[in-house]
Amino acid sequence: MARMRVVIVGAGGFAREVAYLLRELEAREPGRYEHVGYAVTDLSRLGPHDSLNEVLGDVSWLDAHRTSFDAFAMGIGTPAAKLRVSDLLLGQFPDKEYPALVHPLARFERASASMGRGVVVCDGVVGTVNLAFEDFAMVNLCCTLGHESVVGRGAVLNPTVNLSGGVRLSEGVLVGTGAQVLQYVTVGAHATIGAGAVVTKDVAAGETVVGVPAKPLQRAAAAPRGAS
Questions:
Q1: Who has greater pLDDT, 159 or 220?
Q2: I want to staple 208 with a disulfide (CB 3.0 to 4.6 A). Which of 44, 72, 148, 217 is the partner?
Q3: Catalytic: 147?
């Protein structure tokens, strides 16, 4: 199998974590992946926390150098941006690959899992059976996923999130660090779960919930101090 030359889309901290993931996979299976560099959609938005010296260019650079890479990996940690950019790339580069990248130390039953394009599963993730990772889903460090959990298209789990069995995260959901989602809860498209929240009920599409137990942000903000 020829080595896959991968451009990471994004240049910030999570993009560097994806580069680390590629190095870990390459160490386990030499000759599998080569990290070519980072690319962004807007060079004017690069900042001091980006890997400036390793940025190849923008979409015009990618178009002009199509033969220098084989695949894209998504190094974007915000669902809305990830979905927008992935749609752009799929339209302009339909011939490129979008491999699912799963860290060697992530543990779940691979045989019963379904894995879409461009999925990223990071170090220390632990899951069980019948998991579904839809296109461009991302599961960050040390998350847990119970049986039949679904991580929807472009959804992002920040570090140490825990999903109980049967949880369904719809497209573009963002789950903040350390949040807990209890069994058989469904979270609607493009909803946000705040860091540390405990979600006990279904969350409507586009809603932001925070707190323990999690409530819609407007309601939580309006509740008097000490109210449950």
A1: 159
A2: 217
A3: yes
